[in-house]
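WP5 quarterly update. Target: Fur family transcriptional regulator. Source organism: Spiroplasma gladiatoris. Length: 144 aa.
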Amino acid sequence: MSDELYKEYISTLKQNKIKITFVRQCVLKIVASRKHFTISELIAELEMQMGSVNVMSIYNNIDLLLNLNLLFANSINGKQIVYEAVAPKLIHINCYNCKKFEHIDYSSIDEKVTETLKPLMQSAEFKLDYFKLDVYGTCKDCKK
Ligand SMILES: [Zn+2]
Ligand SMILES: [Zn+2]
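Structure tokens (predicted):
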């Protein structure tokens, strides 16, 4: 788990005067440690940790994190929603064939993309905080 990320979340909650409940702590720990997760995966993991969970409160926590810009919601094929921690630079590959949806984590590519986006955003008078790119095509397994 990324302790640093978790600590950042807690301080963001404090700054926004949001109560740090036990359920919230558990949710944040999972968000900080996982790349992608669905709401049912989150609920299953919380149930393992805590026994029973109030599903409504999990949805409320997800909404809260989305509102605080701590969480991204990716919709896959317009159906399934996959959540993940907001990161400054994200590139996702989406394979048309096997529906693979994955991160690519090459920081050198990220830098170049940021450098390309900066002047574009400046001319649009928009302050860029982070970006998320979705790339579509065929993955290496399907190309064979
Ligand atoms: Zn594929
Ligand atoms: Zn991702």
